[in-house]
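Please check this today:
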Amino acid sequence: MSIPVYMFAGFLESGKTSFIASVLGDPGFTRDENTLLIQCEEGMEEFDPAFLKKYHTVLECIEDEEEYNEDTLRAFVRKHHPDRVIIEMNGMWDLDEAISRTPKVLDIYQIITTVNAETFDLYAKNMGQRMLQHITDADMVVFNRATEETRQLIRDRNVRSMNPQASLYFENDDGTSEDYGAGMPPPYDMDAPIIEIEDRDFGIFYLDASENPENYDGKTVRFKGYIYKGRNIGRDEYVPGRMAMVCCAEDVRFVGFIAKANGLPMPASKSWQMVTARVQAEERKQYKGVGPVLYVTALEPAQEPEEEVVTFN
C-alpha cells in the first residue's frame, strides 16, 4: 500500500517551514497519525523538537541532492513506518528529477509551492526556469507577504498561464488571504447563446476554462484555433488551440482543449479553423482531472489571425 506524500517546493525564505508547521498543527490533518518529515533544506526557521513530538512527527534530513533517491527514501520508510510523508524540498534542486526519483511506495498526493512575493520578480528574472518548474509542477501555489503592488506585478507576469490547473492564492502582508483570480471576470459574454471568443481573448478563455471548467459546462463557444492532432487522444479527437507566450518570449508553447469530431469530418492537421462547440466538463487524464471537452457542432476554414501568439492579459 502506497504512502501519501505532501511535497513542499519553493526557494529559501519563501515560507515552506511555516506552512508545514501550520499543516502539522491542524487537527484535521494530524488526527494522531504518524508523519515522517524529510527536510532537504536548512531554512531560517527550525522545527521545535517538542512541537514535532506533540504532532507525532519524526524528522530526517537529506543534505545532498544525489542522496535524494529511492534507496534513501525507502530506508526512511522502513525505519519509521509513517502514515504519511511531508517533504520540504530544496529550492535549488531539480524538482522534476526529485519527483522521478521518488519510489512508487510514496504516492505524491499534492505538491505545494510557496513563493515570497517580495522576491518573486528577482527570482523570475534570474532563475526563470527553476521558478517556472516550481509553479508548473504544483497543485497549489501560495504567494506570501503579498502587497497590492506585488499582487499586480505577479498578475502582470501571467503566472496563472504557467499552470492553469493549480490553485493560486495570495497571503497578504495585512493578514488577509485572496484568490489569485478574484475580481477578474472574462472579457466576453458568458450568458450569450454562443460565447464569442475574439482572437485576442483566447489566452484568457484558455485560462478561465481550465481553472473553472464547471462555468462552461453545457455552454457553446466559438473561437479560431490551429488544429493539432496528438497521439494520446482518441481517433475522433483533435486539439484546436493557439501558440501562447507563457512567461517570457523564450517560453512559447501550444495550448488548447480536446475536441471531439462529434460526427463531423476531421479537420486537416495544421490548419486554421473557426470552431463552434458545446463544452462538457469531463474527467480526462490529459487534464489531470476535470477539464473542458469540446463537442464540435460546426467547423469552418479560417484565416490565420493577425497575432499568431497570444498572451494571457
Remarks:
- Residues 3-179 form a domain with the Rossmann fold fold (CATH 3.40.50.300).
- The longest strand covers residues 272-284.
- The longest helix spans residues 70-80.
- The mean pLDDT is 91.
